[in-house]
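Good morning,

Both structures are done.
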Amino acid sequence: MRDEASVEEKHGFQAEVGRLLDIVAHSLYSERSIFLRELISNASDACDRLRYLALTNPELAAGDSQFRVSIAPDAAAQTLTVADNGIGMNREELVANLGTIARSGTSAFLAQATGDAAKDLSLIGQFGVGFYASFMVADKVEVFSRRAGEAEGWRWVSDGKGEFAVSPAAEVERGTRIVLHLRKDAEEFLEPLRLKTVVARYSDHIALPILLKAGGKEEKLNEAAALWMRPKNEITERQYAEFYRHVSHGLDQPRLTIHWKAEGKIDYTALIFLPGSRPFDLFNPERKHRLKLYVRRVFITDDCADILPGYLRFLQGIVDSEDLPLNVSRELLQHNPLLAKIRSGLVKRSLAELAKLAEKDAEAYGSFWDDFGPVLKEGLYEDTEQREALLKLARFRSTGAEGLTTLADYVGRMKPGQEAIYYITGESVEAAAKSPQLEGFAARGVEVLLLADPVDEFWVPAVGAYDAKPFKSATRGGADLEKIALPDDKKKAAEEPQAAGTDALIALLKLTLKDAVKDVRASHRLEASAVCLVADEGDMDMHLERLLKQHRQLDGKAKRVLEVNPRHPVIACLARRLSQNGGADAVTEAAWLLLDQACIVQGEPVSDTKAFARRLDSALLKAVG
């Protein structure tokens, strides 16, 4: 027999794990009972996975097919053991699952951690705690595990600080046994009554028996019935909330619970939750939905990409089908017509429930939209079948309304002569609202949608129009503002004749800047600013070009149109000087300074910083000389 100590391997925790353990241990101190919920949830998942594999390979569960979770306190040894007879782990899985964190979003979570327990608690609720919650109550944790189908067992042990060790272990039963060596201040979790209370609160919904082994007796602590199969009127809000936390491994409250049974050509039950907080990895390309697929109460997979579209990846919960075969493989699921029908039903019902929330509670829906709207808008680009429903759900910031507005409300506020829905994209709503391109729209009282999500650059051209009104960028050349009447108090200023020499000035600017811009034109959109850059009709929007360059998907730079405000004092002065004494040299120097000014306002780099500084110095000397 091998000397186990001689083959024990020590490993250092991944740096992020070490810091996470410290945050969890301190921030969740007042919520320490959560550790038991997490361990029971993990045990339940392990049993579900083995039950699925045993459908096609019964030998994996041979000799012990009654899946269960057992809890055993030992007051004399100061230990609490949580065990299951599920899939188990081998050496590599113990190292990977308990020594590293592969979940995307970890870095973002740690970057926002403050050290303030109250604040970090809400962050942990978005991230999840899992196995690491054990160290809130234990100063040492041992894990004994043997994977189904393998002969060798393993022991993992750590104090939750800097290292963990893995070594072979003899006589380990299939599954996982976690032994918590409790801290002195956590002795309450050795009391059977306390354990019963925690299980009743957090884990009553678990669909396999949870057994308490204490005082030589064995007692079942939960109903062991699938919560989603119970009638809705028999389920409390607390039970729904705890089931949500079971599937999400978080601490937050669900924002919306959707529970229904579909009957007809296909039968299935769905219990879906809208999270109460935005997950850190929501925008990570690797993130998948958190929906588990069951067939007649048997877990099949939580990695079925076809069950929900990507734009609903924030939803969590379960779907239980009565019609899919129990031995369906993940490969067959990809093109299964029954699953396609289930997916269609899930999407329609989820969007319908969101529409109800929007109608019933605008404030709650606004909060949802702030968190998940950028993801839901991906559907406008990807899902033409649901585009109409998604357009009704979409909310926007705009120059004409406080808070969020709908497209229908925008159309209802359109001005006489206005034929398009105008929008502007930017790095943020605030930056977009400050753009000089909006001055002419503001003067005419024309509302402009302020779009600040990267996906806006893609869904807007894909959708094209709403209610027969085309979407039109406020930063493109032909804004058609002259078709919309100015209010009386601004008409007089607009009707004043341009300064003499304005046309000649624009021609000279065009000649001077011919290699740097696509064109120079008089502007209808500018009121307070002298110049601005716009994209010509048919050219790529400037913000989209910037985004593609940031992601190295575009080389080069398109030439833009420089629009000039003929009534601006600077432009009028230059025009008069050119008309009166032919000051072409001064105008030539000013032309480049005006272009640099337009670039800066637009958030674009100037082409030659040294030349810009020199021109600015020259202009300041003339002003103060």
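Second structure follows.
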Amino acid sequence: MCGIIGFASNKKIANKKWLSIGRDAMIHRGPDDAGEWWSDDGKVGFGHRRLSIVDLSKFGHQPMQDSLKNITVVFNGEIYNYLELKRKLKKKRYVFITHSDTEVLMACWQEWQEDCVNHLNGMFSFAIHDRSRELVYLARDRAGEKPLFYSLTDNKLSFSSELKGLLVDPDFSHNIDYKAMDCYLSMGYIPGDMCILEGVSKLPPAHSMIFKYNTGELKISRYWSLPNYNNQEGKFDSEELLDKLEALLEDSVCRQLVADVPVGVLLSGGVDSSLVTAMASKCSNNIKTFNIAFTKYEEYNESIHARAIAKYFNTEHTELEADDIDIELLSKLAKQYDEPMADSSMLPTFLVSNLVKQHCTVALGGDGGDELFGGYNHYNRLLWTERKTRWAPLFFRVFLSKIITPLIPIGFRGRNWIQAFGTNFDKDIPLVGSFFDPKTRFELLKKHHNKIEIVAEKVIKNRASKAFDFLQRITRSDFMNYMAEDILVKVDRASMLNSLELRSPFLDYRVIEFAFGEVPSILKTTTSERKIILKRLADRLLPPEFDKQRKQGFSIPLKEWLKDGPWRDFFYQVLLSDECLFDEKIVRSLLSGQDKGRNNTERLFSLVLFELWRREYNIL
């Protein structure tokens, strides 16, 4: 895994120092090597930080160029099918002098140009300068595992793996984009191409960009989409589907175990990570597994289940006890996360990444299984709600929802579900995971009332899947939004802060296309079951006593910590300071509600993390 950064302009770039400064602001993404390249005319510059995974020799150095110095590439990620592509390209008379996947990527561009991304199986963000065509080409992987921020100002394109690579330049925008801010307060993350800073965007997953720097022309296009469900007749063979899933997942895990450095598995003890462990044990006799345990808090301590899986597959298992987390870690992570994100599981994700890095440079995880195969708890409830509310006309449900919701305090159990009662289930998706409703968001930002733009509901609606099947609609929307902008951002930043590469076998595009294109909803989730096909696979592969009904990931006892002690004191200190962006009255109401037993832990976390991030980077 690596960090990339670059500039491209129609004029010679006068101040080149920000390239290396921005590059080295991401040293955690690549502590093993650094490189910088500028075009002869000074219009294009690329920087790279390297974490050596494949071909550890000096020949893997980046930026990398072809023999004629016509093509220059900086690459972040892994191409899991690079050996197959290499064999194919060798038949077309391409000659390779390294063992790296970066050189294969360069040859793919030479052979297929913009179509090269359709040949890649992997996680990636990369930039290519084609001197003969006078363009820079950028692309991100299909699921969005690897990040890429960019800004286009006065015909100058700036891009970076992390926003901090651009923020080192004092002339770069430090102003909040209040549309993105509204989305953050509603969703807990910032979706799609939006960015928390004015004038900055994210290249969306499964998209590529061509920038013709001499003319300033910029074109962004989608190169891949989730497939339509292709079984309209509704007939299927569940055993045949199960066989195919097993074969696909095993092949994906085996591909992702390939590296020139030690590899491990993050094992929470849930279905997804346990299946990854099972597949890994088929591919290798020397598997390392890792788990984090909160022994003082039984509700969060799932180490016994991870140990059972590790014992069953005879892995080399390591466990970290983390009952007390230093509050200073929160400030450290606020600095690392380029955009604030309301997900407290970033803390245990960092801790387990830190543990794994002491033993491995690459680790596999179970991310993606919930979105692909219907694993979240709220999917059952949404299906139940959708079926049980059809007796009531939509106008009546909307009326009741609007009347009752404002009467219920934020954090009160069931409030979001009352709000969801007014959803048109035939085409929309209820916002059961919403942090703050429009009225509260407006009140939170009273100090900046002239800048507020309440857009989140419209953004969510526009980004929702249009699939006819309700479960397809909610899982596809979670895949394109929550997974891409929360789960994968959390994993990338937490792992890369430890210079650890995390891979997700469930996000092999073949597994994704199988899950959405071939697996019927009835084999994913019903009103009483979740992740049905994965649990049937678990019956095949995991020990008979394994508890398949548990929903477990890496989480922390934040609710308990906010009752008293340093975490509570710190939250109060940050949110009630004079410099806090948010309205004090609303903040005190949230804090008071938390003391009364309401569920405001993640809401308070979202505000604290935002404040820490804003102050770290002097955001206005």
